Amino acid sequence: MFDTVLMGWNTYAVGLPFGVTSPYRHLRQIVFSRTRTASGESLEVTARDPRRVVRQLKEQEGGAIWLCGGGALAATLSDQIDRLVLKRNPLLFGAGIPLFGPRPYAPERFEEVGTTAFDSGVVLSEYVRSAAG
């Protein structure tokens, strides 16, 4: 179970026009932004280095970390990701946001640990970081 959710500002800001200032109030929410501020229940907006924040969170005893969104944030944190859970919907939306933004890192291998197809057409696939690199 997750106890912390990480988001980039653009992912967080989707709910603001609708008055949603704390989208996951049951979790500790950390939003990364160099220029913005916000407040909400269980919400922290920070300009700190995301990689350093994740390393500190991993040192703490407790639950897991959920990287909710932001292709640029995902690219920054790609070497910190232990498990990927990808949800695919059978819908075309247009351009969309890349899962990972540009990143200067070498390819990183993950191994599939399970895939579930639902009657709705949604497919949920889970991967863990490969020990082989």
Provide a quick synopsis of the model:
This protein is α/β, with parallel strands linked by helices and 133 residues long. It has helices at residues 9-13, 50-59, 71-76; strands at residues 2-8, 28-32, 43-46, 64-69, 83-88, 110-117, 123-129. It contains three helices and seven strands; from the N terminus they run E-H-E-E-H-E-H-E-E-E.
SS content category: alpha/beta
Low-confidence stretches: none
Number of domains: 1
As for the CATH topology, it is Dihydrofolate Reductase, subunit A
- CATH homologous superfamily classification: Dihydrofolate Reductase, subunit A
Give the C-alpha Rg: 16 Å
The CATH class, by name, is Alpha Beta
Largest sheet: 4 strands, parallel
| Strand content range | 25-35%
Fold and architecture overview:
With 133 residues, the chain is of the alpha/beta class. The protein contains 3 helices and 7 strands. The chain has helices at 9-13, 50-59, 71-76; strands at 2-8, 28-32, 43-46, 64-69, 83-88, 110-117, 123-129. The strands form 2 sheets. It has a 4-stranded parallel sheet with strand order 3-2-1-4. A 3-stranded antiparallel sheet has the order 5-7-6, with no helix packed on it. The longest helix has 10 residues, at 50-59. The model has no long low-confidence stretch (mean pLDDT 90).
Topology:
Layout: E1 2-8, H1 9-13, E2 28-32, E3 43-46, H2 50-59, E4 64-69, H3 71-76, E5 83-88, E6 110-117, E7 123-129
Parallel strand pairs: 1-2, 1-4, 2-3
Antiparallel strand pairs: 5-7, 6-7
